[in-house]
Amino acid sequence: MSALAVAPLTPVAADPTLEDFGSDPWWLIGGKVVAIFAFLVVTVLMTMWIERRIIGRMQLRVGPNRAGPFGLLQGLADGIKLALKEDIVPRQVDKVVFVLAPVMAAVPAFISFAIIPMGPTVSIFGHQTPLQVTDLPVAVLLVLAMASLGVYGFVLAGWSSMSPYSLLGGLRSSAQVISYEIAMGLSFVAVFMFAGSMSTSEIVAAQQDRWFVLLLLPSFVVYVITMMGESSRIPFDLPEGEGEIVGGFHTEYSSLKFAMFFLAEYINLATLSALATTLFLGGWRAPAPISTVWAGANSGWWPLLWFLAKVFLFIFFFIWLRGTLPRVRYDQLMKLGWKVLMPFSLGWILLVAAIRALRNEGYDMQQIVIVAAVVAAVVLVATVLWETFRGGEDEKEIVPRAAGEGRRTDPAAGGFPVPPMDAPHYHGVRAGASKTQTPPEEVTSGTN
């Protein structure tokens, strides 16, 4: 009786630590996994409905409003329709890889969400457990590993389809992810420096006083850009460019196999948004006005509400960009990843490391910040001036010219190839003749 009387008075830590994981009973772990799976599936259905309604409003359209109240069941109707469609498998494909590729794309997206903290330690059927499936000393690196593994599904889908359009989409996906995952990983380094850990639960605990989005704003901006490239959505949806490669790596897929790719895209959207919330927006912690006024805002089940609000705010940001920006060119995409984001991330890491080292030595932080801001401004201005006076020489091509010819402009310089205007035949018309004259093929056939 004495033990039972004292037990409720024992304080329970609100912030989970690595020691809190691994001691839950099997049924509780299984329940968490099922809950995460159900949450992601429902999030995909809700995201599809929200995206259609918001873009419909942006484009002065109604959006889905037939299936269910306000069209809420439209995503479920689309899923059932995909499941009932005929599963067409082209004759020449590698069937084993063709079937495994959608699974390899979708499964890592589910696994990544297991290390996302959705709330503090709560009581579930009398057991004190964190609102998180598991945590690792290198939990953030697990997300990067799963994202890299998911790309294999896209590449193998393009290769096994035996279609040039699918193969180009798979190659674009691999090149795009390589470019952006390096910059994304570099944006995490500053967070690791300030948190002193790669564990997601400890990173959230380190933001108790101030969110990292305020301290590490450049890292947050780099991550937001790279997460758009990671998700392969507009403006960085080059692997699925309909106007260039029909549909990309999933051109030959239909029915449930296509639905798996569709599911993987939207789950990656939720995972990237949840990771941004965890690393930069305080995780499940309430915003400053709420947390200062209400003492219990960061305890119990209320933090789950703050976490979901931040995640759906990021999802709205993705949708807003899709309805606003056009698709960029592939060369612009690669140049942004390799020539802008990576050098900037490396310079920012060196600056943060220098500031942290000087702070540990006892130097005045105000002077350090001022000097760092001046140095960053000088470097930025110098870079802009260099690009301005340089005139983009790396995009120009030197066109050879024969003796006696004037300078000829290369129509493919700085963009995609276009038919040269001074070619011998242009749109089937002889050089020097008007478009109303008889084409050459009709002259040679005697029909003039």
UniProtKB/TrEMBL annotation:
Positions of transmembrane segments: 30-50, 96-116, 136-157, 178-199, 211-229, 258-281, 301-320, 340-359, 365-386
Superkingdom, taxonomy of origin: Bacteria
Keywords: Cell membrane, Membrane, NAD, Quinone, Translocase, Transmembrane, Transmembrane helix, Ubiquinone
EC number assigned by the record: 7.1.1.-
Positions with biased composition (Basic and acidic residues): 401-410
Record carries keyword DNA-binding: no
BP terms from Gene Ontology: aerobic respiration
Region of interest: Disordered: 401-448
Family: Belongs to the complex I subunit 1 family.
Protein name (record): NADH-quinone oxidoreductase subunit H
Gene: nuoH
Catalytic reaction list: a quinone + NADH + 5 H(+)(in) = a quinol + NAD(+) + 4 H(+)(out)
